Amino acid sequence: MMTGRFITFEGGEGCGKSTQAARLADELRARGVEVVVTREPGGTRLAELIRSLLKDEREDPPCDRSELLLFLAARAQLVRNVIRPALAAGKWVVCDRFSDSTFAYQGYGRGLPLDALRLMNDFAVNGLSPDLTLLLDVRPEVALARMRRREEATNTSSDRIEQAGDGFHSRLRDGFARLAEAEPGRIKTIDANGSQDEVWCKVLAAVDAAFGATGSGRRL
Ligand code: T5A
Hints:
By secondary structure, this protein is α/β, with parallel strands linked by helices. It has eight helices and five strands, in the order βαβααβααβααβα. It is globular and about 45 Å long. Residues about 215-220 have low confidence and may be disordered. It binds P1-(5'-adenosyl)P5-(5'-thymidyl)pentaphosphate (T5A). P1-(5'-adenosyl)P5-(5'-thymidyl)pentaphosphate binds near residues 14, 18, 102 and 106.
């Protein structure tokens, strides 16, 4: 059976994951690779509905445990209906957030017990782990400035999770760093404080280091 590659992007708010994930997908396609780009929470009809529930800021926001279960339900659906079939067909999957976000946000950020999270997450993904995770690390002030610029440009405001206090966001960054320390083979930390082009060069170098210069071998 053919198997594709599973690459995830992780990091705090405004680190530039979506931008780099889209760029990586374009590059891989240009090299002749079949790519599925998806995101968490989301990527299926049910998971997108869960996403909108999670982002809803009206009365009755989810408590920490409900929030966890909703993220895991969305993930189980995405893995079962999108990621596993794509990998089995030999496609590459580029996913904006995956399990590490749960450990960082619900574990280190919200303070839910990591042991329980690992067991529950493993049940949701049925043992699936990314081949490569790119952790985009930005200083808090850089991330905040990007988010503000985007809010001004799109006339939107930050959501429930983005509005969590500074303490939450610094626990999050520390949590991601610990996850990377624990799994240096899979999680590669990228300094994402620079321009989009600077970050892109580092992303591509990490992907090529992990898998070789795929397809046409075209490199930047
Ligand atoms: N969550 C998710 C959990 O709590 N637990 C979980 O298990 C999971 C899966 C998802 C929320 O859910 C939480 C985490 C999140 O709070 P979301 O809206 O998908 O919500 O939030 P994010 O994943 O954080 O997505 P964002 O779009 O906010 O951030 P990105 O994807 O990191 O950043 P991006 O690429 O959209 O860029 C943000 C802005 O900065 C600019 C972009 O143009 C954009 O305007 N930018 C740069 N500017 C300057 N220099 C660069 N290098 C730049 N790169 C991007």
